[in-house]
Write a structure and sequence with these properties.
The structure holds 2 protein chains of 2 kinds. Chain A is of the alpha/beta class. Chain A is built from 8 helices and 12 strands. Helices cover 32% and strands 27% of the residues of chain A. Chain A starts with a strand and ends in a 20-residue tail after the last helix. Chain B contains 9 helices and 20 strands. In chain B, helix 1 packs antiparallel against helix 2, helix 2 packs antiparallel against helix 6 and helix 7 packs across helix 8. The chains are: A alpha/beta, B alpha/beta.
């Protein structure tokens, strides 16, 4: 039995079925990439795994630590160890990054405002964040800013990875984390993620392009087309896609070079 | 006047004027205002300003004309203030003013005392902006205003710590009509807070307040109005800010109390370089009704106004916002901004927002906008995705929504008090 098991997941959005029975096994210590053309259901997969209310799960289970994620609220999934790095992180006006991260860390540890001994101390908070912030080249004023408010594309993505580093999930889903990233940012982000790789963390990279996989080497690659996984294999699958694109399944140009347009 | 049986009579006017030891000119002003009150009709829903504002439940005959202080719980203490004036009911207040601040010529005193001691300062300004003939409630206020605060900060004087007035009312069934008159001398700089407080009482009360702020050339004034009347109160407020050349007024309204609360907040930019910030934060719950009417009047060029009103509503609460930016023909090169943001925290809560523009000069920059929306489900999901349960996430979002205004309250103690009140209401 794998640490994280997606079993025959079917998901609809506004009555239209997008995921048509997706199954995938992922163990801690592994990095999997789910690749697919536009409209294949990649983002639906990541949102459904996290429990976004607009995505209706019509069938399937997702097992982590003996619990079916699909029966849990998004915050319960997060506290169980699931993390989603958003493709488009949400702006939350008036809530500082510091307050946001501290509240999230406190809840992760079971502090609900009562037992002070469970709360993260200012010193711990500092020590949790200092390393990743240096690695991601984020200065300290960052914590005083409102969540994602006025962040550049690169800052948003780096902030997603900073949160991941602080919350230390067991299963991390990275949804198009490299899109909108300049070449420096993608390096900082990948270095940070590679630094977290290890026996305690399983990673699911959701991506259209192969670019991020040049920085974070996957152990397994799955191709998602039209709501179904049509191919699974090792890293060589990504190399193949790099050459042929998704032309075998969809009317899209080959991938080689196409990702350059994403550099900003 | 449609209710001839009210206790707002000529005898009441004389008795209240005597309680404050007022001179003949002011008694005469009160008498004239009473005549106006007797003649003016109660507003009806056919008046544009009152179309969504229902006062049918208001019975003016239910109120005594003023409230004698009864020794009930005083207002909360104030830390780190340069001066505090405490007024209970309709009686003249008690003042504590730092002697070092008084030595600079700053006057903080009950209005009734200023009327006698400084008539040359008071008389030209009192009711010069808040006109008794505006409507029946303004007339009633001018006839029976229950004293209030006079603050004068002379030319060039800076007061570092805030000056505070606390109006405390503990009597249901009466009218409490405080008046604040502020004269900011040229180049003066200070922060002032009006705090209106009462417990929730069984019998309705009528609280009709007025504030007049005169900011002379290059004055820098912070004015905070903290409205925490009990749920028994029918509250009407007229607040007018008059700004001369290069003056800046930062106005913040916090609206929490009252069963019914109608506020007119009007800024008049009279000299080039004048700059006003109007910010409000209100939280209505239960069956509370809040009404805000604002005016940003640009009378001359090179003036700036920036309005940001934020309201959260839950339960069956309702609110109405109507705001006018008026740019006069001579007011070229003016900037005016107006944003009214409403957050609905229940299915039944309602907010109406009506932004209005009257622009008579084309060489200006002017933007306005209004939103009425529930808590953004995307924001909620984002916070939840980090392990924060929905109720906590919603509290953070509401607190964040108010943050832009709350963080601007220049007094830590007032800020904390408002935060506690918001926390309590979010439950």
């Amino acid at each position: 039995m794998a640490d994280f098991e997606i079993r025959d997941l079917r998901v609809s959005v506004e009555g239209r079925e997008i995921l048509k029975g997706v199954s995938l096994d992922l163990n801690r210590g592994e990095v999997h990439a789910v690749m697919g053309p536009n409209g294949s259901g990649k983002s639906t997969l990541s949102y459904a795994l996290m429990g976004h209310p607009s995505y209706q799960v019509t069938a399937g289970q997702v097992w982590l630590k003996g619990q079916d994620l699909l029966q849990l609220a998004p915050d319960e999934r997060a506290r169980l160890g699931v993390y989603l790095a958003f493709q488009y992180p949400t702006v939350v006006p008036g809530v500082s990054m510091r307050n946001f991260l501290r509240t999230a860390l406190n809840w992760k540890r079971g502090y609900d405002g009562k037992d002070r001994s469970k709360a993260v101390s200012p010193r711990e908070f500092q020590s949790l964040l200092t390393g990743p912030m240096q690695q991601l080249r984020m200065d300290s004023t960052f914590l005083s800013r409102y969540v994602n408010d006025g962040f550049s594309g690169g800052e948003k993505k780096r902030a997603e990875i900073l949160q991941m580093a602080a919350l230390k999930p067991e299963i991390a889903i990275l949804d198009e984390t490299d899109s909108g990233l300049d070449i420096d940012s993608i390096r900082y982000v990948s270095e940070t993620i590679n630094g977290m790789r290890g026996p305690d963390l399983g990673v699911l990279i959701i991506t259209h392009y192969t670019r991020i996989l040049q920085f974070i080497k996957p152990d397994y690659v799955h191709v998602l087309v039209n709501g179904q996984i049509v191919r699974s294999g090792g890293p060589e699958v990504a190399d193949e896609l790099e050459r042929t694109g998704y032309s075998e399944w969809a009317d899209e140009p080959a991938l080689a070079g196409a990702d350059l347009g994403e550099v900003s | 006047m449609s209710s001839p049986t009210t206790a707002f009579t000529a005898e009441a006017v004389e008795e209240l004027a005597s309680l404050h030891g007022e001179p003949e000119w002011l008694r005469q002003q009160r008498r004239e205002a009473l005549h106006l009150f007797e003649r003016l009709p109660l507003p009806s829903r056919s008046d544009e300003e009152w179309r969504r504002t229902d006062i049918r439940g208001l019975d003016l005959s239910a109120f005594a004309p003023f409230e004698r202080a009864d020794g009930a719980a005083p207002a909360s203490p104030v830390q780190d203030a340069a001066g505090v004036l405490r007024q209970r009911g309709s009686e003249p207040g008690q003042v504590e003013l730092d002697p070092a601040v008084a030595a600079k010529g700053v006057l903080l005193m009950p209005l009734s005392r200023a009327v006698q001691a400084y008539p040359d300062l008071v008389r030209p300004h009192l009711f010069a902006e808040v006109r008794p003939d505006r409507d029946v409630f303004a007339a009633l206020h001018a006839a029976l205003f229950s004293g209030g605060t006079f603050l004068y900060v002379p030319e060039g004087v800076t007061v570092d710590r805030p000056l505070v007035s606390q109006f405390w009312s503990s009597g249901g069934g009466a009218a409490v009509l405080p008046h604040t008159l502020i004269l900011a001398g040229r180049g003066s700089s200070f922060n002032y807070v009006d705090e209106f407080l009462s417990p929730d009482l069984d019998r309705p009360a009528l609280t009709s307040g007025a504030a007049e702020v005169f900011a002379a050339e290059a004055a820098q004034v912070g004015y905070v109005s903290l409205q925490r009347w009990g749920r028994h109160a029918w509250q009407f407020a007229n607040q007018r800010l008059s700004l001369e050349r290069d003056a800046t007024v930062r106005y913040i309204h916090v609206g929490l109390g009252g069963r019914f609360s109608k506020n007119r907040i009007e800024a008049l930019l009279k000299g080039p370089g004048a700059n006003v910030e109007l910010k409000a934060l209100s939280f209505a719950s239960g069956t509370q009704f809040f009404d805000f009417h604002t005016l940003q009047s640009h009378l001359v060029g090179y003036t700036t106004s920036d309005l940001l009103f934020k309201s959260a509503l839950k339960d069956q609460a309702r609110s109405v916002y109507a705001g006018l930016i008026r740019i006069e023909p001579d007011a070229a090169r003016s900037d005016a901004y107006q944003a009214d943001r409403n957050l609905l925290l229940s299915e039944q809560a309602r907010a109406h927002s009506i932004p209005m523009l009257e622009i008579l000069n084309n060489d200006v920059r002017c933007t306005h906008g209004a939103t009425v929306a529930p808590v953004d489900p995307e924001q909620l999901f984002y916070l939840q995705s980090r392990g924060i349960p929905a109720p906590t996430a919603e509290r953070m979002i509401v607190r964040g929504f108010f943050g832009e205004v709350l963080d601007r309250i220049p007094i830590a103690q007032a800020r904390e008090l408002v935060e506690q009140e918001l926390e309590a209401r979010l439950g």
